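User: Second chain of the day. Same drill as before.
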Amino acid sequence: MINDINHIRKLILVRHGKSDWDNNLSDRERPILPRAHKDAKLVATEFKKHFSEPIHLVSSVAKRAKQTAQIFENELSEQATTFLLNENLYTFDVLELVTFIRKLPDQWQNVMIFGHNPAFTSVHQFLSHKRIDHIPTTGLVYLEIENLDTWKKAKYGKNKLELYAKQLR
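Assistant: Same format as last time:
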């Protein structure tokens, strides 16, 4: 089902919460800090004020991204229709992330992706006319891409919302 006659697709990028560097863990296994749990809940709660539609959640397999996504899934429980982990989102490369977005199922109109910089900031630059120098940890950017009947053609969208935990605290 298409949102409306303009075929609007909504893409929300969420950078994982601040990770714990104190333990001698691999990059994939680093968890988020206790503060990041609070930050993720704060950003998710604020996001719900701006977005009430069903949404598919897809996260990187890295522990810090997965933990952040699980907090959002809990906060968006009435809206979250899918929660998936995907190995391809454990990337820091813009082209790999754009490829992932362009392979999203066309029946998904609203998608929230959890992952990593610098890919997230670069993809935002690629898909939006608004420049953001750096998406901080637990940062959320929401883009609407109009007149798009398939994710394969995703090119330019409008920056609708930016939420950063440090601005909401």
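The chain is about 30% helix and 20% strand.

User: Great, on to the next one.
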